[in-house]
Amino acid sequence: VRALEPGFRLDQLVVLSRERALYRAWDRTLKRPVALRVHLVPNSAGRAWFLRETETLAALDHPTIRHVYAAGEVRNIAYRTANWIDGESLTEAVRRGPRPIPLAMSLMRDLLSALEHAHARGIIMRRIIPDALMIDISGRGVVTDLRYANWCVSYVPPDAAEGAPFMAPEIRAGAGGEPAADVYTAAAILYYAL
């Protein structure tokens, strides 16, 4: 916290794991709320993976993919800031029951648009899970996690779980992926939502 405080006011710890943390923070320079993702373990395989995911997210500029604002390192803590999404994950929404068909179709349009944008830039997302598909307060779906995208595959530590239920069979078998695999994942997400 002390390392990050000069640039950010850390308002809420949202998620914490052994290597990563996600904060809802206030960017003191940009004067807006941000998602502040930090990586806590220097010189680890996870650090290289975190940095590669940051590059992958930054390569995309689409309203339904989380935007990276900035990235850096301070006192051996790597961080990136991105847009804060007011809303809930698809997992949270489904806990209240199946999504109505019009809402599910809108979510699919958003997801397929994000995939089309990524594919045009050579990025195959490979894995999208309901926890990492946010629904903002206007109802728009936003992909927040590209850790398992084809650009990141060679950086994924061997012990990392990929979330197989939403992945195409060829991805589960170890393939790098192609656009059709992402369409399979989108269909699995639609089925889950309904």
Q: Can you tell me about this structure?
A:
This protein is α+β, with helices and mostly antiparallel strands and 194 residues long. Helices cover 30% and strands 25% of the residues. The protein has helices spanning 45-58, 90-95, 101-120, 169-172, 179-193, and strands at 8-16, 20-27, 32-39, 68-74, 77-83, 87-89, 133-136, 141-143. The strands form two sheets. Strands 1-2-3-5-4 form a five-stranded antiparallel sheet, with helices on one face. Strands 6-7-8 form a three-stranded antiparallel sheet. Helix 3 (101-120) runs antiparallel to helix 5. It starts with 7 loop residues before the first strand and ends with a helix. 34% of the residues are buried. The model has no long low-confidence stretch (mean pLDDT 94).
